Each structure stands twice: as C-alpha cells, then as structure tokens.
Amino acid sequence: MQLSTMLFSSSPLVKVIPGLMIWTLIAFAITFFVLKRYAFGPIQKLIDERRERIRQSVEEADRVREEARSLLEEHKALIGQARSEAESILAEARKIADAQQQRMREETEEDRKRRLEETERQIQQATVQALAEIRNEVANQALLAAEKITRGALTDKDQQRLIDEALAEIDFSQLEGSRT
Description:
Order of helices and strands: HHHH
Radius of gyration: 65 Å
Distance between the termini: 148 Å
Shape: rod-shaped
Oligomer: single chain
C-alpha cells in the first residue's frame, strides 16, 4: 500500500486544489450551458426530425403494404372471375357444339330417310311401269298367238275380249311379291 499511496500523493493531477476545482466546475457549467443552448437543442431537433421521418416512412411502408395486399386480393379475385367466365364460355361453346352436332345428325338422318323414301317411290313407279309394259307385251303376244291360231276368224271386239280374259288370268301378285 505504500507504493500506491506514494504514487497518488506525488502526482499533481491527483492533488485536490480548491481554486482549480472551482474554475473547472465553472468552465464545465459554461461549456454545458453553451452546448445545451446551441448544440444539444439543434442536435435533439435533428434527432426528432429524423425520428419523425422514420416513423412517417414506416407508416407509408405499412400503408403501401396494405394497398399492395388489397391489390393482390383484388387481382386474385379478378383472376378467379376470369377463370369462372372462361369456364362458362367453354361450357357454352361445348353446349353449342353438341347442339350443332345433334342438329347435323338429325339433318343427316332426315336426308337419308328422304332419299330412301324417294328411292322407294322411284322403285314403285318403275315396278308399276314395268308391270304395265309386261301387261302390254303379254297382251300383244297373246294377240299375236290368237291371231296365228284363228287367222283372222275373230273380230276386233272378240280379240279385245280374249285379251282382257287373258290378262285377268295372269297372276301379277306373284310378280309384285318377288319385288319385296
């Protein structure tokens, strides 16, 4: 301990000098007053302004974030609505395509039936015409055969009667039955 006591007692900076202490306190007070008046106020003002700008920036960032979030939600809603509309448009297009396809089938079926009926009608007309031609040919052949047999012994009236009787005896229903 002696060493430490010697060190402090021998150093002039550690010695308490009342006059120096008073002047140090006065200089400190004056410096503090000047700093408080001219430095701490403006520095505090700058700090407060900076704090206010930071607070405003944070508030602006929060506001922008909320706006972005609402825009994102609106965008998602619009995308959902667009998808819904696209699905409804596709469904409507499929419905129209199915209706057109059904209409084409019906028109094709109607056209096929119409052509089939027209063909059957033409076949019936051709059959009737062929039967009429066969009757006429049979009548002519019968007339020729009768004429050869009788060689002029029959009158025209008798010949017509014989033709009608020959036609009545021919069974045309067998000819018509073979057609179907």
